[in-house]
Amino acid sequence: MKLDSIDLGTEEFLPAVEVARLRQRRWQTQREYVLSHSSFFQRLWTGIRIPQRLEELPNLPLCNKSMLRESQAAHPPFGDYLAVNQESVVRLHRTSGTTGQAMNAALTRADAVQTAQIGARCFRAAGLKPKDTIVHCLNYQMWMGGVTDHLSLEAAGATVIPFGVGDSRHLIATILDLNIDAIHSTPSYPAVLEQTISDHFEDLNPRDLGLKIGIFGGEAGLDSESFRNKLESTWGYAVRNSNYGMADVFSNFAGQCEQSNDLHFLGHDVLFAELICPNTTSIVPFEEGETGELVLTHLKREAQPLVRFRTNDMVTITGTDLCKCGRTTPRFRVLGRSDDMIVVRGVNVYPTAVRGVINGFSELSGEFRVRLQGAGPYDRIFVEAELQTQDSATADLQERIENEIKQTVRASAQVKLFPARSFPRTEGKTKRIIRE
Ligand SMILES: [Zn+2]
């Protein structure tokens, strides 16, 4: 199948009642499929009546990452939630977990097409057009962000250059040489490129590269307006967070449109989303203004279908009305991982919110770490921030950052400043919390 012949569909523009009907129909089929093909769920659901109606889904037990990890350890390589014969699996992605046990994600041909379709909707929402040439700078080594996002970019119709990570000098020369107008990378990668430009390209400014769109994903933090403004003014491109997903469930199913800073659910027709309280697991209404841990159910999936999977991500629903872009699907913001959440004197603090403050200071490079001592409870956080240049520190800088964190994040902070370029730059995910 030619990837640019994949129909991206218009489900994200359908009236809510029509999407609800479609989801209900898909769940009825998926329910039968999971019941008859997944040993994992047959075991989990023993003695439980499996609801026909989606609104009764909360009657089913939740599942989580550690259950999947145990399943893969007992039934390698894909776990007993693999619901197809291994010969139907066309792609294997491997992610290295924080526990050290790698997780194997399987896709059938139909799963791969659906993944490209929904991912392409995210890139289309970001404003990527078939006339655009985009350089794809995520890691191709087994990770979904590599080849899977590449195929989604192709499905969006763009001309895609498979660059991968590393060799930033070569990348800059390639962008100049080929008149590339869009880039896809992690949000921390532009800082690496800025450093490469100043080290190796005399009289070249990031804006001189002529990039029009910067598409980012793979890390939280882009919801911070000050970070986006800083990137946009340095590079002159439109910044879009267009790549939200997780390898266990769906590579990429949400992104910003050209009219809103929030993420649209763009796989709303194939994934059913719920919110729960992470501590009590009680249901939180899926309504504007509500915050909870995101729980996802596949409505159409062959290889490793999941039902009521806890993503660990805390999200706030920011809009359920019609967006200016014409999309009807709900919008949300990611606050951070429920297990990254730090409670400081009763206030929930996420590293993403701290990043927002750090990025608002032009004296800082944007690189930072939150250091936690002991298991808590905490009465303050220790923030280490890197200076932009050797002489960018003013006498009151530290105090101003501490005050801003107090105002915005509502937590007491003790800030320590570090010399410019003293923190390691990473091309993958950057660890922001250090627990001691
Ligand atoms: Zn929109």
Please indicate the count of domains.
Answer: 2
Mean of residue pLDDT? 91
Unreliable stretches, pLDDT < 50, 5 or more residues?
A: none
What is the spatial order of strands in the main beta sheet?
4-3-5-6-7-8-9-14-13-12-10-11
CATH architecture of the largest domain: 3-Layer(aba) Sandwich
Q: Mind telling me the CATH class of the largest domain? A: Alpha Beta
Strand percent estimate: 25-35%
Topology, number of strands: 20
* Euclidean distance between termini CA atoms: 51 Å
The CATH superfamily label of the largest domain reads ANL, N-terminal domain
Radius of gyration: 22 Å
Hetero ligands:
zinc ion
Structural class: alpha/beta
- Helix percentage range: 25-40%
Q: Helix-strand pattern, N to C?
A: HHHEEHEHEHEHEHEEEEEEEEEEHEEHEE
Question: What is the approximate shape?
Answer: globular
| CATH topology term of the largest domain | Rossmann fold
Largest sheet: 12 strands, mixed
The number of helical elements comes to 10
Produce the secondary structure layout:
Blueprint lengths: L15 H22 L1 H6 L20 H10 L14 E8 L5 E7 H17 L7 E4 L7 H12 L3 E4 L5 H11 L3 E4 L3 H12 L12 E5 L7 H11 L2 E9 L3 E7 L6 E3 L5 E6 L6 E2 L6 E8 L10 E11 L11 E7 L4 E3 L2 E3 L1 H9 L4 E9 L8 E7 L9 H12 L4 E6 L14 E3 L1
Helix pairs in contact: 4-5, 8-9, 9-10
The structure holds zinc ion.
The site of zinc ion (ZN) has 7 residues, from loops.
